[in-house]
Recover the amino acids of this structure.
C-alpha cells in the first residue's frame, strides 16, 4: 500500500492551476508494457456515435498534422506523443494517421509565433487561444484558424451534444459573436476545480491543543504560538510566492477582495485598489515585523518551503493537494510517524462566515485544439478529435486502454497496477501519460474519477478548500475588443509592475502604509479605472452570448 500511495504524488501537481502546457527533457527510454493493448478491431472501433454522423474507423486515408507542446509527464519517457499507447490507440480506433509536432521545451511561445508568421500551419494546433493577440475572433479573421460552427455541428456530434447539455460551458467556449474556435479541454466536475489552499502542521496543533484556525485572529495566535512554543523560525512560508497566495485569495480574501479582476454583484472590481487591500497589507506588514511571515517570502522557492515544512522551520503554508499535502505526508511517513498536515479553510474575519475567495479554476481554461484555416482535412480533423468526447473516447483520454491501464468495476473505471504500481517505477503521472491525456490537458472532458488515487488527507483538504464562494466572484473568459487590446495591454503592464513593486514595499515596511492613498492615485493615473471599465463591457458582452 505504501508503494501505491507514494506513486500518487505527481498526479495533481498540474491541477493548480493548470493553466499552461509545459514540456520537459525527453529521456527516450523504451517503456515496458505488461499487456498488449486491447484489440482495436472490436465494437469500440466501429461503433457509430450517438447521432450517427461519424463512423470509426474513418475511411479515406487522410493524414493529419497536430502541433502541441509535449507535456512534461510525457517527455520524461517519450520523445513524441506518437510513441505512447494513447496515441497508437487513438489512431487505430479512428483510422487516421497523425503526425505529432512538438516545439522544443522552453520555446513553445516562440515557435508558435514563428509558425503563425510563416503561414505553414498543421491541421490541428493546441494553444490557449484566449491569449492570441486580439483573441480567438482575431485568429479567425487573420486566417489562422477556422470558425468551427458549421464544422462542429456537422462533424462533432459528441461535443455538440455535451455543449447543448451544459449551456454554461457552451457560453465559455465561444466568442462574444458566437464563434466556436477550438475543441476544448473541459474539467467535467466541480471536484476538479479546486486543488490548493492553506496547509498546517496538524501534529503541532494537536501538541499545542489548538484547533484548526478559521479567522485571521486565530491564524495570528497560531503562528505566534508556533514561533514561541515550537521554535519555528518562519511560522508561515508561502509555497510558491506571495502572488500565488494573493491570486488564490488567501488572507486577502478575508478583507472582501482578491488579487486582480473579480466580480461583485455583477460589477467588475480590481482588488489591489480597493480599501480592503490596505487592511490586508497592514496585517501582512504586522506578520512580517513579528517574523510570523517568512521574511524571505519574496525569494522563496518550493524546495526551501518543502524543507521548512518537513524539518520544523515552518508550521503553515499555502500549497496544492499533490505537490504539497501528498508529497509531505508520504515523504515523512518513514521519517517521522508523528508528522501530519491538514488542509485548513480559507480564513475570514468573523467566525462562521463563508470565505468569499479561494483557489478556483474555471471548467474551461482557454486551451483547445483549433483547426487551421488552410487545412485540407478540416472535417476529418474535427471527427478525429470528436471521438475523444464520445463515451469510449473519454474513457481512453481519462483512463487509457480497458483491461490494460484500467478495468471496469460496476461501470466505473479503476486504474490497474500498471498505473498504480508501475513496473518501470515511474511516478503515477508518468505512467498515466503512456495511456491517457488526463495527467495533463487535451481536447476531452476530464473525469473526476481520476482522483481515485488520492490519499485521504488530500481528499479531505480539497473538500475543506472547496467551501468558498469563489465561483460567483470569478471572472469568466471575457475578451476586450480588438480596438482595446493594445491599450489594455499597456495599462496592465504598467499597473502590474507597479503593483508588485509596492506590494513588497508595503509588506516589508520600506513604504509606509500611510502612503496607500497615493499608491491608489498612481494606479488610477496609469489607467486602472479605464481597464476596469473595459473588463465590465467585456463581462456584459459575455453575459449576452
Amino acid at each position: 500500500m505504501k508503494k501505491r500511495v507514494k506513486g500518487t504524488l505527481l498526479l495533481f501537481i498540474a491541477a493548480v492551476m493548470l493553466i499552461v502546457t509545459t514540456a520537459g527533457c525527453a529521456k527516450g527510454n523504451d517503456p515496458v508494457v505488461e499487456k498488449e493493448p486491447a484489440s482495436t478491431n472490436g465494437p469500440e472501433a466501429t461503433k457509430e456515435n450517438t447521432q450517427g454522423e461519424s463512423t470509426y474507423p474513418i475511411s479515406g486515408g487522410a493524414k493529419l498534422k497536430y502541433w502541441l507542446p509535449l507535456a512534461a509527464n510525457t517527455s520524461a519517457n517519450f520523445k513524441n506523443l506518437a510513441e505512447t499507447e494513447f496515441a497508437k490507440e487513438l489512431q487505430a480506433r479512428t483510422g487516421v494517421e497523425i503526425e505529432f509536432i512538438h516545439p522544443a521545451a522552453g520555446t513553445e511561445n516562440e515557435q508558435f509565433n514563428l509558425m503563425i508568421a510563416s503561414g505553414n500551419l498543421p491541421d490541428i494546433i493546441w494553444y490557449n487561444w484566449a491569449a492570441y493577440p486580439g483573441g480567438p475572433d482575431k485568429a479567425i479573421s487573420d486566417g489562422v484558424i477556422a470558425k468551427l460552427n458549421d464544422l462542429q455541428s456537422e462533424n462533432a456530434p459528441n461535443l455538440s451534444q455535451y455543449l447543448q447539455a451544459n449551456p454554461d460551458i457552451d457560453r465559455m467556449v465561444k466568442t462574444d459573436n458566437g464563434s466556436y474556435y477550438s475543441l476544448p479541454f473541459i474539467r467535467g466536475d466541480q471536484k476538479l476545480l479546486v486543488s490548493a489552499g492553506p496547509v498546517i502542521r496538524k501534529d503541532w496543533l494537536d501538541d499545542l491543543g489548538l484547533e484548526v484556525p478559521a479567522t485571521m485572529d486565530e491564524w495570528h495566535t497560531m503562528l505566534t504560538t508556533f514561533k514561541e512554543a515550537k521554535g519555528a523560525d518562519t511560522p508561515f512560508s508561502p509555497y510558491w510566492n506571495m502572488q500565488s497566495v494573493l491570486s488564490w485569495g488567501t488572507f486577502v480574501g478575508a478583507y472582501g477582495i482578491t488579487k486582480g479582476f473579480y466580480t461583485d454583484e455583477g460589477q467588475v472590481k480590481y482588488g489591489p485598489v480597493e480599501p480592503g487591500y490596505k487592511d490586508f497589507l497592514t496585517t501582512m506588514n504586522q506578520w512580517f515585523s513579528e517574523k510570523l511571515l517568512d521574511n524571505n517570502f519574496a525569494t522563496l522557492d518550493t524546495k526551501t518551503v518543502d524543507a521548512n515544512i518537513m524539518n520544523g522551520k515552518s508550521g503553515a503554508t499555502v500549497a496544492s493537494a499533490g505537490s504539497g499535502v501528498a508529497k509531505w505526508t508520504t515523504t515523512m511517513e518513514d521519517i517521522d510517524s508523528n508528522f501530519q498536515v491538514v488542509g485548513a479553510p480559507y480564513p475570514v474575519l468573523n467566525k462562521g462566515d463563508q470565505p468569499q475567495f479561494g483557489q478556483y479554476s474555471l471548467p474551461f481554461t482557454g486551451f483547445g485544439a483549433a483547426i487551421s484555416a488552410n487545412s485540407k482535412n478540416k472535417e476529418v480533423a474535427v471527427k478525429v478529435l470528436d471521438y475523444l468526447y464520445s463515451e469510449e473516447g473519454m474513457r481512453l483520454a481519462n483512463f487509457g486502454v480497458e483491461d490494460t491501464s484500467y478495468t471496469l468495476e460496476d461501470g466505473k473505471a479503476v486504474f490497474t497496477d500498471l498505473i498504480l504500481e508501475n513496473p518501470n517505477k515511474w511516478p503515477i503521472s508518468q505512467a498515466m501519460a503512456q495511456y491517457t491525456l488526463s495527467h495533463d490537458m487535451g481536447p476531452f472532458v476530464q473525469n473526476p474519477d481520476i482522483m481515485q488515487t488520492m490519499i485521504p488527507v488530500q481528499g479531505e483538504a480539497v473538500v475543506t478548500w472547496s467551501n468558498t464562494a469563489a465561483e460567483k466572484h470569478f471572472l469568466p473568459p471575457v475578451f476586450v475588443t480588438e480596438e482595446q487590446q493594445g491599450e489594455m495591454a499597456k495599462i496592465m503592464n504598467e499597473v502590474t509592475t507597479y503593483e508588485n513593486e509596492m506590494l513588497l514595499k508595503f509588506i516589508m515596511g520600506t513604504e509606509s502604509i500611510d502612503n496607500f492613498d497615493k499608491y491608489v492615485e498612481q494606479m488610477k493615473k496609469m489607467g486602472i479605472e479605464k481597464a476596469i471599465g473595459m473588463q465590465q463591457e467585456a463581462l456584459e458582452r459575455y453575459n449576452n452570448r
Remarks:
- The mean pLDDT is 89.
- The longest helix spans residues 485-508.
